[in-house]
């Protein structure tokens, strides 16, 4: 069985048939999945607001209450069951719907917008931010309803599908972030055409950019992405010849240009209008699309070549907002991508533990091209900033042995349409204890070794980590997305002299995204980068999932994780100074306030201190 749809070729930026899209939307919105998704968003919204301390609440017995003021000025309350979990002190609501009480009337709370309008003022959020967040949540409701409706109609068993199809079949999105599928900028037809859940074939649009307007970066081991050898490998001789002739037909010299792919949605909605003047002046030449079919991974903007799976993944700019941030590709991160990948790969190649024992896979970002807009009037630069960029990343299949399969790490917490965990057959085959022990050794050791042996934190959240298995048993991991997904302090680096010179974050970018930086002077920020992405999200969700579905107590889970770290420290005592610098056992650690980022301006880092389940003082207040 194969999920991906690669039959036929869509025109550049074409949408699905209008009537078909309309009927699917109508059916999905009337289905029970709409209510199920709305309740899930409500739960994650309330859970995150309580956990991040954004609103006050009262718990009496098994019932929790949030007080607010209705739009008529009268008092209201929201009621629900909740519990504080051992895992980072996370708050989880019961599966029962949130209820709204106004006077003597009480019923299910079915308006996310009304909830935020009635309680967010108490959190001090500006109305403009609240209204935009409401839009993100309502778009998440629509997009996930469409995805879940399709999922239940298809009723696929992911175990019957290829490795790459797991990226399309895992449809649940971020387990903590309430606007986990906002995708602001996509309409419902775009969602069905480009959403990863729909696995539709995507044909990138290729353009030629004059070298005076392009920033190029590439691995030291590969040719420049503008070279004929590189283009022949990416496009094939036939397509390359067609595009070269297209440049000549435009009256231009092919040697003056570089070629890069553009997401068809980005071409249709952004490049064709925002950069129209450069298209008119022939600084940008549209070349057309190719025959090769791609599908979107969970991250939406990363595309997998389904015609030739060994070809690099394409990470393309998308001018949409999803979860916490816009999905453009900032030029300085594109410039840094191959430089950082080469650095990490040099480290791994010279480290026998990473190379020979853990056999860690690093999916290198081998080349990048970004459009240079400094010629534009300063007030207009922000409109085109990062809108035309591409990063080429190594594909996973070229790194796997024949006996190995691979799944996204968040697949470990996914269930099928009947509610059965996808990890069930693997756990049944090997036993929970043995399977989990192997999983933790496989996933924890590479992350902490980079931190302790080299002083580098990797942002190993669910989309950035792939679990490699042999007959269902974890054997190693693959890591990716390094161009803006590492953090280090020179004081903490094992070999600071080997640290490459990196392009600095521009002031404009820093103003709009305070979380976008690679280097810091704060050692705790380096440690917390690992805690936040890997322990809090990846392992945190797994700890809760295994207790709820398999009866593995969360305390036992975190005791096992702590044991893996302690065994590592016993084996590598030479890193004891960094054990101290990057202590993972502190009673409190900092994690990002993802919902606060949606309600308040990005003028500061939104972090809060939470209970650390790895602490030796394991008492949860």
From TrEMBL:
It comes from the Bacteria. Pfam families: FhuF, IucA_IucC. One of its GO terms (molecular function) is acid-amino acid ligase activity. Transmembrane segments: none annotated. Residues 165-414 form the Aerobactin siderophore biosynthesis IucA/IucC N-terminal domain. InterPro entries: Aerobactin_biosyn_IucA/IucC_N, IucA/IucC-like_C, LucA/IucC-like. Pathway: Siderophore biosynthesis. GO terms for biological process: siderophore biosynthetic process. Belongs to the IucA/IucC family. This is Siderophore biosynthesis protein.
